[in-house]
Design brief:
six-stranded mixed β-sheet; mainly beta
């Protein structure tokens, strides 16, 4: 017999001491394969914390995103990009954000429009890497977006007035019933409204003899012990609100195995394994893991006919542990989920304010203090929201970051009131949580996947930054891929990178750290057959040379399919007074937005550093330098309608010499010489470096103006601008740049990481004109990222609104050691 515990310090088995020493065998092979699987496929989890659980149309949705990886829930080093999507009632994508993650956290926001349909919306978040696995492990939350109105009756979704049907499931512990062996059976009863129901029932055999009774408790969960007998069949007889049902129990196996685990307060697990197969447990292995990290192993080398083990849990992290019984050949026979409830693994978050009561528009100072269970300070990254308690409904037992990461993210399927299982004063929470483990499916991975020798490669790679991918094809034959050399340039960011597409024309470049929208150009050419450049080939200023008769096509965004059954919902209050208050405040806010347009809405531009870039009057966006050496405004020039290209105008700029004939032209700026004589100037189109042939294709009617930069004014372009710069700016509609369909070239604007807007928080201690507006905010304050200091403390402040009544503070986040924390004040 072998016996090993990884995270716990020890385990008890009343057997000779010599049995604790055992040679390598099946247990080690399974553990090694599990470690290999977790190393190749570390699990990532995303959680979104929002400022409110429900919204009125026209409001902003503010959120923070937390990204963890591995068994310890540490900030993910696998990915630093999270995709966050707002999905409408018709399951169409309303908006999406690319959220950059640093130290495990990022933040963003969504606008909502008043003309959108009201109803159930979804927030979904995932990484590219998470797409390799079941989409049920994406973060997906359902919430209500309501139309501001005075009446409230239509705002609440209609539900059936009475229960007209129900379903009941019976799930044997470990997987199967076995004749002659006692088993525990989990029960889950759900009404047609989707909620758990409570009732009593009885188990009868096929001769009508009652052999067991049972009852379901809160959430419709229950369990009972039962020993099936050979040759007998069994069914449950149930009655609830006049509805009677007879439901057959799972058919028992003639021979097999049972695995039973019992929680022993305060911190022990009792494992019992039985089999009615002669020598069936010889060399059997029991392996326990928590989030893929092995925590216990045992091998029955002595061939005991039954096993009883006691495992201490005070050193095991909190969360769902999976125990599996394997045959001597490594085949999984039974499985059991157990929730390890470990108070030592929790943080204690206290929230306090400087006063107990406040007047309207008075400043509130908030102090956060986070410690472990023995009083040591904890460093953490958290977010905080302050809402009007009269109007905003936070469910008492709703989902939070702790219940999500420790329970919901590892146990797909609907879980009613998940927060209930984490409130220590709830006397029945441990028993109900164990019943939940008996009745909820496990799908993070299967042992069949883990134990295969050749683990499949990833289809969706982790992303550290953005990936640009696509295909190169023959110019007019999109179904004919060609190999090509490509140069990707993001001039504003000082980024240039060479890549080659394969024989299938496919290319992919990863790791672009675009912190905001960035103009990108990709130039490509088919390589020459010989090493020397032919007379007919073209060479751009970035080193890509060859035949440019190719087409570059970028891959379109391809979000995963949307499954409305995945995730969980945030309910609206059933209290009529609270509903009425929320709808009334939302209506007042909507009316005030019409009366005071622009007040209490801050754009990102208001927070940018002034003076770095100048806004020009030609509708072409920002210019990355203060002033050019020369500027030529095309619309002011005579004869502009007869010009073939911008080069015809460049001849008019003092000191600019145009060399060659259309369409093969270049520019030399007088007064600038290299060691080899006059050298061609650098060409920039709307902020992106291009070659002369690209510039010649721009319609003259699209050009707003041309700047020439020399000397220090061209310094921002580095060595590439040493021979001077010719910068061409095109006319635009709004913020959209002109697009060009040129052989071997494609240019586009990449959105980059989303720059979250600043939450507007009025400062009433300083009189401002906008303070004349009445204040009926339902979100009084939102702080997306707060870092506690070495003492575990952090502070923030806000001002109350015009309403008399209470406010509520909710804080959620993660410690740097991977402990989820949440608190409410």
């Amino acid at each position: 017999m072998k016996h090993r515990t990884n995270l716990p310090a020890f385990a008890f088995l009343l057997l000779p001491f010599s049995w604790l020493f055992w040679p390598p065998g099946t247990a080690e092979r399974i553990q090694a394969q599990l470690a290999k699987y977790q190393s190749k496929y570390p699990s990532e989890k995303v959680y979104l914390n929002t400022d409110k659980p429900h919204y009125a149309l026209g409001e902003n949705i503010w959120f923070s995103a937390y990204l963890t990886a591995g068994a310890e829930h540490l900030p993910s080093l696998v990915s630093n990009l999270v995709y966050v999507e707002l999905i409408g009632p018709d399951l169409t994508l309303k908006a999406s954000r690319y959220i950059g993650i640093q130290d495990g956290v990022g933040n963003g926001d969504f606008d909502t429009e008043r003309d959108w349909p009201e109803g159930k919306y979804f927030l979904r978040a995932y990484t590219n890497y998470m797409r390799n696995f079941d989409s049920s492990f994406f973060f997906q939350r359902e919430f209500l977006l309501l139309k501001p109105r005075v009446e409230i009756t239509p705002a609440v979704p209609e539900t059936p007035k009475s229960i007209t049907d129900f379903s009941v499931q019976f799930m044997p512990e470990g997987g199967d019933l076995v004749n002659g062996l006692s088993s525990q059976i989990g029960v889950k009863a759900v009404s047609n409204q989707g909620m758990g129901i409570q009732f009593e029932g009885k188990i009868l055999d096929d001769q009508g003899t009652q052999v067991a009774v049972f009852k379901t408790y809160r959430f419709g969960l229950g369990a009972f012990s039962f020993t099936p007998q050979s040759g007998r069949k069994y069914q449950a007889e149930l009655s609830f609100q006049g509805i009677q049902k007879k439901i057959p129990l799972p058919v028992a196996q003639e021979q097999g195995y049972t695995l039973q685990i019992t929680q022993r307060p305060p911190n022990q697990l009792l494992i019992n394994v039985r089999s009615n197969i002669p020598n069936g447990l010889k060399d059997a292995v029991i392996l326990g893991h928590l989030r893929g990290q092995s925590i216990f192993s045992f091998s029955n080398a002595e061939g005991l006919e039954k096993l009883s083990l006691t495992i201490p849990t005070d050193s095991i992290p909190e969360g769902i542990a999976q125990f599996t019984l394997f045959s001597s050949k490594g085949e999984p026979l039974c499985e059991r989920l157990v929730f390890v409830d470990n108070p030592r693994e929790r943080g204690r978050l206290s929230i306090s304010t400087d006063k107990s009561t406040y007047a309207a528009r008075q400043k509130v100072s908030v102090t956060l203090e986070l410690k472990d269970q023995v009083g040591n300070p904890l460093k953490a990254m958290v977010s905080a929201t302050v809402t009007d308690k009269q109007s905003v409904y936070w469910s008492k037992y709703g989902q939070d970051i702790r219940s999500y990461l420790l329970l919901q993210a590892d146990l797909p399927g609907h879980i009613e009131d998940p927060g209930y299982f984490f409130v220590e004063e709830n006397a029945t929470r441990r028993q109900l949580l164990d019943m939940l483990m008996l009745t909820q499916g496990w799908r993070r991975f299967s042992w069949k996947q883990v134990l295969q020798d050749n683990l499949p490669d990833l289809a969706w790679l982790p992303e550290q930054g953005f990936t640009i991918s696509g295909q190169t094809t023959k110019l007019d034959q999109p179904d004919k891929p060609v190999s090509a050399d490509l140069m990707v340039v993001a001039m504003e960011k000082g980024i240039s990178q060479l890549v080659s597409s394969g024989p299938d024309g496919r290319f992919s470049i990863s790791g672009f750290p675009f912190v905001d929208s960035t103009q990108v150009v990709i130039q490509g050419a088919k390589p020459n057959s010989n090493s020397k450049k032919s007379k007919n080939s073209e060479s751009n200023q970035q080193g890509v040379s060859g035949n440019r008769d190719i087409k570059i096509r970028l891959d379109a965004d391809n979000p995963p399919p949307i499954d409305p059954q995945v995730g969980f919902g945030l309910p609206l209050s059933t209290d009529a007074t609270q509903q009425k208050s929320f709808m009334a405040d939302s209506k007042k806010l909507a009316d005030l937005d019409s009366l005071f347009p622009g007040i209490w809405k801050l754009s990102l531009a208001e927070f940018e550093v002034k003076g770095k870039r100048t806004k020009n009057p030609y509708g072409v966006g920002d210019i990355p330098y203060r002033a050019p050496t020369d500027r030529m405004i095309v619309d002011s020039l005579p004869g502009k309608n007869t010009a073939l290209s911008v080069f015809d105008f460049l001849r008019r700029i003092p000191g600019a010499q145009v060399v060659g004939t259309f369409p093969n032209q270049s520019v030399v700026l007088r007064g600038i010489n290299s060691l080899n004589g006059p050298a061609q100037a650098l060409f920039v189109l709307d902020g992106t470096v291009v070659d002369a042939s690209t510039l010649s294709t721009v319609p003259v009617s699209n050009i707003a103006f041309v700047d020439v930069l020399k000397g220090g004014q061209a310094a921002m372009f580095g060595n590439r601008g040493i021979n001077g710069v010719v910068a061409v700016y095109t006319k635009r509609t709004g913020n959209q740049p002109a697009q060009y369909d040129v052989n071997g070239i494609i240019n586009f604007k990449h959105p980059g990481f989303y720059k979250a807007r600043e939450f507007y928080a009025p400062q009433y201690d300083k009189k401002k004109p906008e303070h004349d507006r009445p204040d009926f905010r339902t979100t009084l304050h939102w702080v997306p990222i707060i870092e506690t200091d070495q003492a575990g403390k952090a502070t923030f402040s806000f001002f109350t609104n015009d309403k008399a009544g209470a406010f509520e503070i909710l804080v959620q986040g993660m410690t740097l050691k991977g402990i989820p924390v949440s608190g409410r004040y």
